Amino acid sequence: MERISQSIERDHGISAYYAFLPAIAGLSQISNYAVHVGWQCYTFALFMLGVIALYGIARELFHGSRWFGCAAVLLLYLTPRMFAEGHYNNKDVVLLSLVLLTIWLGVRFIQRDRLWDALLFSLAGAFAMNTKIIGGWFWGVFGILYIVMHLRRRSVSRQMWRNGLVAIGAFLLFYVLLTPAMWNHPLGFLKYLAGQCRKFQPLAWLRDV
Question: Contact, 17 vs 90, CB < 8 A?
């Protein structure tokens, strides 16, 4: 079996697929094709989670308007490339869905400032960061925005600090629990991730054109 350090998947986590892993045992008893179809169906379900999150974002930002929510959903869902890759892309499309979920829950957290929203926001952010480290950037941006909005509204309170600290603590806890690879050597693992990010060159293919 190929070592993860030698795989092209070495910069991606699979926490979003943990819930599907038990199903593999049952589907493998049927056929490899059944596992493949199940994997694609689960991937599409994750894509639809992102579609739902986008609907939620639009409704939150446009005062509950269903029209804006539906328009945003159709623009994403009916884009041929996104619809197609939503069935099989277990990296970028899954990351997109988790980021959209993080943004939606982040907006809810900022607007409602409830402890439950802080926990859900951090859970989504931890899943996104496990999938790829850049996913944690969106959690951080909305965490900062949470503080900025309270300062702007002059609504700094004990509740704000409590919910903010809970969000930070929950994010760290969820990320550690979702990432067994870092349990033995956390700092070494984070250094490894940072190294992989530096090696990523999104426009490297232009040199070959």
Answer: yes
Identify residue 8 by its one-letter amino acid code.
I
Task: Pull the structure tokens for residue 24.
Answer: 């593999």
User: What pTM, to 2 d.p., does this model score?
Assistant: 0.85
For the segment 105-152, what is each residue's pLDDT rounded down to a tens digit?
Answer: 999 999 988 999 999 999 999 999 999 888 889 999 999 999 999 888
> What tokens were used for 10?
């070495």
| Alpha carbon distance 133, 69 (integer Å) | 28
Can you say how many angstroms the Cα of residue 83 is from the centroid of all Cα atoms in its chain?
Answer: 18
H-run or E-run covering 137: helix 135-153
**DSSP per-residue codes, 188-201:** HHHHHHHHHHHH--
Cβ proximity of 105 and 117 under 8 Å: yes
First-to-last C-alpha distance (Å) of the chain: 34
Instruction: Please say whether the beta carbons of 178 and 15 come within 8 A.
Output: yes
Of the candidates 48, 50, 45, 25, the one whose C-alpha atom is nearest the C-alpha of residue 35 is: 25
Q: Give the Cα separation of 188 and 208 in Å (integer).
A: 34
